[in-house]
């Protein structure tokens, strides 16, 4: 897929129902996963305030793969090599489609089930793109 809109159409959902799993680095060998609606991006000030930290970053592709076992573009909160904490943006709601660990593979499920299964913390951590 070349665009968010193409991916959404292929999965039969709206772009906002595509959920991206982003790896965020808190420190050396300390990560978390943030679930972000496809049409939004992380709000770094909101996420830092939620976590009570002054600094966060996104690892490079090799760092993300080392942290999760997945290459960039296939990262999913399911089956990560380490069970990192998960934060779901409060807009992850209704039926959503999330990557399932390989290019072109996705799972479509109810966001409430996704949050429950992952024991995700739900918070306002995104902003418009």
From TrEMBL:
InterPro entries found in the cross-reference section: YbaK/aa-tRNA-synt-asso_dom_sf, YbaK/aa-tRNA-synth-assoc-dom
Coiled coil location: none
GO molecular-function term, one example from the UniProt record: aminoacyl-tRNA deacylase activity
Domain YbaK/aminoacyl-tRNA synthetase-associated as annotated: residue spans: 2-116
Protein name, entry field: Cys-tRNA(Pro) deacylase
Organism of derivation: Flavimobilis marinus
